[in-house]
């Protein structure tokens, strides 16, 4: 008798669930767009994950964050959450995020090296010049043709931090704000770090915000190089540059990005009392 009663209850519950599913108003949850562009420089198609503010208005101008490692299964979702939170609770304006999905980050984020061990261990590396050309000559012009833009940000961690450092030192005009997290400045026997003073001396002293961060739990070389790069930046005496450095005391290479970006954004956009 009990088994029959349970069967009747189960059948009734199933019918109720089906009826509810048929009447429920189901809509996709959308936070932006996925676009694909053809790059002649890279000779491949590249996917862009684009976060748009909730009240996006195509007639308005917006800051743009270019996010390296911007695939859906990498940093796009949690970074866009930070941006939305800082717009809601801090003084950050509504901002568009362009997540650049990866195909081969080792190829795209590293410059050429003659070191045989690196060539052997990382056979596809050494083509950041092409990727920077893609950013400068294809991606940024495309985004600026689609949206009205103001300030431009570059977010990069690890090899992405190495690329962000290379762009800052060699093509500084591409972005106004650089968030360089745990940069892999060990690459090519620290050659970029060694060239930094000479490269910085050639850069015009135009307004920039530069945030460098590293985790205390990271490899000692990573920590040493990040601190050395910060020192080089400070010694460059750029009066119109705001240079910030943050040692993340409880973070390692795997955990640092989200919390470190939070700390960097606080420097730019302090808390403001709700109106």
Automatic annotation (TrEMBL):
Molecular function via GO: hydrolase activity
Pfam families in the record: Esterase
Signal peptide: 1-21
Keyword Signal: yes
Membrane-spanning segments: none
InterPro entries according to UniProt: AB_hydrolase_fold, Esterase-like, Mycobacterial_A85_antigen
Keyword DNA damage applies: no
Sorted UniProt keywords: Hydrolase, Signal
Protein name: Alpha/beta hydrolase
Species of origin: Chryseobacterium zhengzhouense
């Amino acid at each position: 008798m009990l088994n029959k009663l349970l069967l009747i209850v189960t059948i009734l519950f199933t019918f109720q669930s089906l009826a509810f599913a048929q009447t429920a108003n189901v809509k996709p949850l959308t936070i932006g767009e996925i676009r694909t562009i053809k790059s002649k420089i890279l000779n491949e198609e590249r996917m862009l994950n684009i976060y748009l503010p909730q009240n996006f208005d195509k007639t308005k101008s917006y800051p743009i964050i270019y996010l390296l490692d911007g695939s859906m299964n990498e940093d796009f979702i949690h970074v866009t959450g930070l941006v939305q939170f800082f717009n809601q609770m801090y003084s950050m304006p509504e901002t568009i995020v362009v997540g650049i999905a990866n195909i081969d980050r080792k190829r795209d984020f590293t410059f050429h090296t003659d070191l045989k061990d690196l060539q052997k261990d990382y056979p596809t590396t050494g083509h950041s010049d092409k990727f920077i050309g893609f950013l400068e000559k294809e991606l940024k012009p495309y985004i600026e043709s689609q949206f009205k833009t103001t300030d431009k940000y570059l977010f990069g961690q690890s090899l992405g931090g190495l690329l962000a450092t290379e762009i800052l030192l060699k093509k500084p005009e591409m972005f106004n704000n650089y968030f360089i997290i745990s940069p892999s400045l060990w690459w090519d026997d620290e050659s970029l770090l060694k060239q930094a003073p000479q490269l910085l001396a050639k850069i015009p002293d135009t307004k920039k915000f530069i945030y460098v961060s590293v985790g205390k739990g990271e490899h000692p070389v990573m920590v040493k190089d990040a601190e050395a790069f910060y020192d080089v930046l400070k010694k460059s005496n750029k009066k119109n540059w705001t240079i910030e450095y943050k040692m993340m005391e409880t973070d390692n290479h795997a955990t640092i990005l989200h919390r470190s970006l939070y700390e960097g954004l606080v420097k730019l956009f302090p808390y403001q009392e709700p109106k």
